[in-house]
């Protein structure tokens, strides 16, 4: 089966600009996650969707980050405006059922904010 | 707040030596997952532990979940160069990832 797809793979923007990342989970996977991984650290969960509903967004900086999964399939994560500290790899993952099941990660989008 | 710490942060071993990484949480975890991330790659799921005191094995890898469900360990027997990468634990449905242990295997 095809894995989790993400685009773009790399993005360089200036601070205060906006950026959007796209994720297409494995077909049939109801649960979708966005993580932020800063260099040298473990992934940090930003938001979790179950179908098109938000299950957990407690660690999402809502003043500048937003995410949606309108049709319960693919998802978009947006940052507006970006700050230097947002430089990181943004990982999308999906699982077939709930969060206690194996998660499959995409290749990630490496964001550099200058 | 919730913290999941891993030790050591780095480990260099000769090929064939054993390796262990430890994961410690400040609070009780519902479950714990272990992931491996190769340099430049994305995390790959290894295993999930749910029960107190649970032990699971995958070939040369042995995973343990502590009795109090606040700590866990991953032990690799006779490391190989293919074991190189960063090993992360993640507690309670991946809400809290550990700091990771970067393993280097010297041939």
Kindly estimate the percentage of residues of chain B that lie in beta strands according to DSSP.
over 45%
Q: Rounded to an integer, what's the Rg of chain B over CA atoms?
A: 13 Å
Low-confidence stretches of chain A: none
Beginning-to-end CA distance, first to last residue of chain B: 41 Å
Order of helices and strands of chain B: EEEEEEEEEEE
Q: How many alpha or pi helices of chain B?
A: 0
The major sheet of chain A is characterized as: 7 strands, mixed
Beta-strand percent range of chain A: over 45%
Helix fraction of chain A? Answer: under 10%
Compute the average pLDDT of chain B. Answer: 93
Number of helical elements of chain A: 0
How is the biggest beta sheet of chain B arranged?
Answer: 6 strands, mixed
Rounded mean pLDDT of chain A is: 93
Radius of gyration of chain A: 13 Å
Structural class per helix/strand content of chain B? mainly beta
| Helix-strand makeup class of chain A | mainly beta
What is the count of β-strands of chain B? Answer: 11
Helix content of chain B: under 10%
Poorly predicted ranges of chain B: none
Can you walk me through this structure?
The complex is a heterodimer of chains A (114) and B (107). By secondary structure, chain A is mostly beta strands. Chain A is built from no helices and eleven strands. In chain A, strands 2, 4, 5, 6, 9, 10 and 11 form a seven-stranded mixed β-sheet that branches. In chain A, strand 7 (65-68) and strand 8 (75-79) form a beta hairpin. Chain A is globular and about 40 Å long. Chain B is mostly beta strands and 107 residues long. Chain B has no helices and eleven strands. Chain B has strands spanning 4-7, 10-14, 19-25, 32-37, 44-49, 55-58, 61-65, 71-76, 85-91, 96-97, 101-106. Chains A and B meet through strand 10 of A and strand 5 of B.
